[in-house]
Amino acid sequence: VTNSNSTPIGRWDGIDEFVQSVSSGSFTAAAEKLGVSKSHVSKQVGRLEARLNARLLQRSTRNLALTDVGEILYRECLAISQQYDALESIVADLQNRPNGTLKLAINSRFGVQYMAGAIASFARLYPDISIQVHASYRDVDLIAEGFDLTIRYGDLDDSSLVARKLGGYTMSLYAAPAYWEKHGIPTTMAGLRSHNGLCPPDRHWHFSSADGTKKVRASGNWVSEDGTTLLAAAKEG
Known about the structure:
CATH topology of the largest domain: Arc Repressor Mutant, subunit A
Strand order of the largest sheet: 4-3-5
Number of helices: 7
């Protein structure tokens, strides 16, 4: 909809001025409530009547009186205006009180050992948030699988992700005393290749030194992504 000057007219234009004029009893009082001039209110109501092709108000020097059409429009618009005010209040409340669903991916062993308590505390703090926890040993694809957050350890391969470091850990090689007694203790990284290593899925161990990180291929016959499983196997020698 446009006026004679080709200026777009909103469907709600003039409604606030009309409703406030009726509620306040005059254009002057409506202008004070809306923080505009009396002439602005009068013009907006006049344009609304022209757009609807209907007389809404009977004007006199002392008061305003609704026509039959104006009374119907006022009643309906007042209800809509009140509903909109209620919606604004709901939206503001939602902004101040977090809610919705948080889909979280964590490492199985790390999640159970270190994150379960933190997640429970978060749930108590934000009871309107539903938390879906996916625990596994694989690195999920946050975008493709619809996750909001993942807690993992290791290098961050996807540089487009926003990450925050939560802590650090140190990994070392261990074996049961019975294994050392039977096979001897290796003194070099090259010597590890002759031992029955308990391997992660990529079958490599990573060592840090002054020269940087070095990778040694493990030749064991036991492979698992579960650290708890590897630890139990190591204890058995």
